[in-house]
Amino acid sequence: xxxxxxxxxxxxxxxxxxxxxxxFVDHLADYIAMHHNMVFPHxxxxxxxxxxxxxxxxxxIDFEKxxxxxxxxxxxxxxxxHTWNFNGDExxxxxxxxPEYFQSFLLRTDYLNRFSFLSGQNDQxxxxxxxxxxxxxxxxxxxxxxxxxxxxxxxxxxxSLLQLLLWIESWHGTKTEKTSNPYNYTIFHNYQRxxxxxxxxxxxxxxxxxxxFITPNHLNAICKSYIGSAAGxxxxxxxxxxxxxxxxxxxLNINEIAIELNFNxxxxxxKFFKKATGLTPDEFRKNNS
Length: 289
Description:
There is one protein chain. By secondary structure, the chain is an alpha+beta fold. The protein folds into two domains: 9-172, Regulatory protein AraC (Jelly Rolls, Sandwich); 179-287, Arc Repressor Mutant, subunit A. Helix content is 44%, strand content 17%. The chain has helices at residues 12-16, 28-34, 134-148, 154-172, 182-198, 205-212, 216-227, 231-247, 254-260, 266-277, 281-287, and strands spanning 9-10, 23-27, 42-44, 47-54, 57-61, 64-67, 72-76, 81-86, 91-97, 126-128. A five-stranded mixed β-sheet has the order 1-3-8-5-6. The chain has a five-stranded antiparallel β-sheet with strand order 2-9-4-7-10. Strand 5 and strand 6 form a beta hairpin. The protein is globular, with a radius of gyration of 20 Å.
């Protein structure tokens, strides 16, 4: 495993200067003013989401650029790489909470997995609130912000956050239409989780299919029904994303990154990366310096 320092990882207590707090809620303008210098690639070890009620500029999540627009909302899972280029006119709300925030509160420790927008999947994490829901969004976020300022009602704050997430899910839904076939969706979701945990060591869909007790053909069919690509593409995309994250860290040379990602040699890694992006690892690094 790589021992050198990597992309800075921010934790919740460093954001809100409270080592005991697992939740932070603020008006976006105040948050940006407080952290105006945080405009470098960084990761969070907490869930982070923002509602823009106004603003301009852009931000990058895992190297995908998103232009800000009014009533855009974005969600980030722990470990994603983020930076921003705001123009200073942003208003809205920001919410940060640790993965452990609901640990002693919910019987189902995997409850947050039901929310597609907390999955870290790029096609699920940035969207615009429909016009018919915008007034409600501001009221609900502001009510949650006010509730969060009273630490004596900690359980009520947790319930309020869950209500907020459930409200978002009620109108956003999911592009994967998980309710149409709960069995297939569960397999698809479990496959994504297995890939996230094992992508450095396990590169063959067949090995994952065995763990899911289905055939490789069945796994491919399920993946194609949800994302239009075969199961192997999910593995390749996850390896590629990790390569990009590591390349941002200039303390690591290309050979170290290839070893970290279990490529046999530097040249094989370079061929893989260029085939996927059209750039060599060095060219990608220069373009993202």
